[in-house]
Design a protein that fits this description.
Chain A is an all-alpha fold. Chain A contains four helices and no strands. Chain B has one domain. Classes of the chains: A mainly alpha, B mainly alpha. At the A-B interface, α1, α2, α3 and α4 of A face α3 and α4 of B.
Chain lengths: ~160, ~120
């Protein structure tokens, strides 16, 4: 009798949890359907803002690499000063900058597809795509954070070098 | 004789039509290839001259007011403390510009709450 009661309780709990998940999805689906036009407009605005940030930051990164990092390392080599840390920093910066450029294209492609999707007809697929776009956006945020870190590191390394002169 | 002239005229008209058609097809296909490259390379996402992506007025004013920043470390020459001081002074300006962007591509912009599709435990917005 006791065993039966435990089994019934477990089954009831499992059923209840499934019902909650389903209710949650349905509510979210209804919300996506009702707010579809607003969401699409928000996504288009975001796309435009991201494009602005990408162009601006991309130009800055390019300038840091070509006008500061590379010339300094070339000049150090010409002066027979061996600074492995600065070279490693330059290489990491160049690699991450390429990732920043490539990941942005992937992210924008997915975001564009998302803005073109009919969220009224397929809210679930729309939400799945949204999760994918979020992951790609996270990658962009990581790239930007790493590039900022490397820019700060470059300053520290040059200051350290300055002290040795 | 007349029939020969007529034949030549007909052939000429037909050739002109075929040539025009071929020219149009070549133009269409090269345009298509160019657009595909423009899209697939990702250049489209950096092109701020396309409709809907034009810079805002304040941005244009900012650019116009911006001073030209011409510093670049020369690749040749000796390394002295003065040169590195000048380098650092200019570098700090660039660094500040990068850091001025607080949390670009932050996750909040695409969150459920921001898009107005957040569902609470009770199943309500």
């Amino acid at each position: 009798m006791r065993k039966k009661l435990i089994i019934i309780a477990v089954l009831a709990l499992t059923l209840l949890s499934f019902t909650n998940v389903w209710a949650f999805s349905e509510t979210q689906g209804a919300l996506i359907k009702s707010r579809c036009d607003v969401i699409r407009e928000d996504l288009k605005t975001l796309q435009k803002n991201d494009s602005r940030v990408r162009v601006y930051l991309g130009a800055l990164y390019e300038r840091v690499l070509t006008k500061y990092m590379v010339p300094l390392n070339v000049r150090l080599v010409e002066n027979n000063i061996n600074n492995v840390e600065l070279i490693e920093n330059q290489n990491s910066f160049a690699e991450t900058r390429i990732a920043f450029v490539d990941d942005f294209v992937n992210y924008q492609k997915s975001l564009e597809e998302l803005t073109l999707m009919d969220c009224k007809k397929e809210p679930e697929i729309f939400y799945q795509e949204l999760i994918d776009v979020r992951k790609k956006r996270e990658k962009m945020a990581k790239n930007v954070a790493k590039l900022s870190e490397l820019i700060a590191k470059q300053k520290e390394l040059v200051m350290k070098l300055r002290e040795t002169l | 004789m007349d029939s020969d002239a007529e034949k030549k005229s007909t052939n000429g008209a037909r050739n002109l039509f075929i040539m025009s058609l071929v020219a149009i097809l070549i133009a269409l296909s090269t345009t298509g290839v160019s657009l595909a490259i423009y899209h697939n390379s990702g250049d489209i996402y950096l092109d701020r001259s396309r409709p809907g992506f034009l810079p805002d007025e304040d941005e244009i004013e900012d650019d116009a007011n911006k001073q030209k920043f011409d510093y670049e470390l020369e690749k040749n020459g000796e390394i002295t403390a003065e040169i590195l001081d000048e380098y650092l002074n200019n570098y700090v300006v660039e660094e500040e510009k990068v850091q001025a962007y607080r949390e670009p591509f932050d996750s909040k912009a695409l969150s459920d709450a921001k898009l107005g599709i957040e569902v609470s435990e009770e199943g309500q917005q």
